[in-house]
Design brief:
mainly alpha
Length: 197
């Protein structure tokens, strides 16, 4: 059976993020997903090492890799629109679910359960915590983009940066891993290669 799943996923590189913002450097969904996966993995590792959690960091990375895959079908909905009110947020969640189901339907039947486990939430408390960490990683990735834009002289991201910092502060109150990432790793973003090496 011919499967279009991975060929469809490869189109993530064509989905531009921040459509309503003037960017000094465009960012596509593929690179964003990689960054979210790496940060989600780091948050789970921090939780395990520093806070005695027993989380599957590899699964956090996988969830991060696929967290926005539905946007191949839906496109990148700007945050102010997506979260404008409860009705729109709920409707968009429904659209995301249908898009994910469409993607999963492209898999051979015997492989689909392994990917459903990545795409769909379970009631397991550790997995729900992992998904909260992926959401935090998504916000951290957004903050990194804002910092990069600001450092390049682009003030277009100023209010996005402020609202993202506020959201991350709320997340850090519940997830100390987020504060650790902000303290230990965020200051290096925006530095030159010479400064990093």
């Amino acid at each position: 059976m011919e499967s279009h799943f991975f060929a469809t996923l490869s189109r993530m590189k064509y989905i531009e993020r921040w459509a309503l913002m003037r960017s000094s450097r465009p960012e596509n969904l593929s690179e964003h997903s990689l960054e979210v996966a790496m940060i989600a993995h780091a948050l789970a590792v921090i939780g395990n090492v520093r806070y005695g959690r027993h989380l599957d960091a590899d699964k956090a990375a996988l969830i991060g890799l696929y967290h926005d895959a539905s946007e191949i079908i839906t496109g990148d909905m700007p945050t102010p629109v997506k979260y404008f009110n409860a009705d729109i947020r709920s409707a968009y969640k429904g659209v995301e679910f249908v898009a994910n189901e469409r993607l999963l339907s492209q898999l051979p039947e015997d492989l689909r359960p392994a990917y459903e486990d990545i795409f769909h939430k379970s009631a397991d408390p550790d997995e729900l915590l992992l998904r909260r960490m992926v959401k935090a990683a998504d916000k951290l990735s957004a903050l990194i983009k804002c910092i990069e834009e600001e450092r390049s002289g682009n003030q277009e991201f100023r209010t996005a940066k402020e609202s993202t910092e506020k959201a991350l502060a709320a997340m850090a109150a519940e997830l100390p891993e987020v504060q650790d990432f902000l303290t230990d790793f965020l200051p290096s973003y925006g530095k030159t290669l010479d400064e990093l090496t």
